């Protein structure tokens, strides 16, 4: 069925701009130094410009919120923010140890398992958790431009003094794995990678939300949710399979807000301008610009969409 033009977007997109410490310039200070200063990405200005061009000037209600954050020792640091889902611009193997993924691994890590050498928790817990889902749903490899939504465990306690779960900081209960590269590398040659990836993200969110209200009903008879919560984050319990691990960590909540930063703007060398334009365009086309059923090449909407996407390539 063709999408009709919606008066408002059902999802709020929280667009994060942050320094990019993983890209040191020549003669830059040591990124590990407390006195070092990271070069701003310029991403927030590009977000703002793209929103103005494609939403404000078109008379459309913008679903975007701009925020600023930074990378701290414990991960991502932001003020007064809540969101349901955060986008990981990961690699195809789900190894979350660099750039924004590194911040997420630090931010969402769980308490150390017994005998762990990690005093403050399991750094690889998030990677292991994501890779369980990759093994089950993508045979361990998700091609760039695809999206997989991974629920975060709801029942693991944190060692923080306020007794809150780390997976619930900022209200995050799901992680959208959205690789822009197979392995860390320059992907600036891929002219519409970001547009395609964001389209895949929104499609995955719609599927998630359609299933969100009945997911727990289909799993309660096959998984003892009360006794399957003791294994460490990303680890299988005794006698447990990858499939039952996935079911016991399912989230019940729909996704209404998504936090995302630049896609491919670090190691991938995609310019902030192209990234911002393609993110905003993909949202506009997906939610606000319906096309008729059974379109053909002479359909005006297809032509106009293509022209708009082509116009972002040299940004």
Automatic annotation (TrEMBL):
InterPro entries: Macro_dom-like. Gene3D superfamilies: Leucine Aminopeptidase, subunit E, domain 1. Residues 1-44 are annotated as: Disordered. Residues 24-38 have a biased composition (Basic and acidic residues). It comes from the Eukaryota. This is Macro-like domain-containing protein. It comes from Panaeolus cyanescens. The lineage of its organism: Eukaryota, Fungi, Dikarya, Basidiomycota, Agaricomycotina.
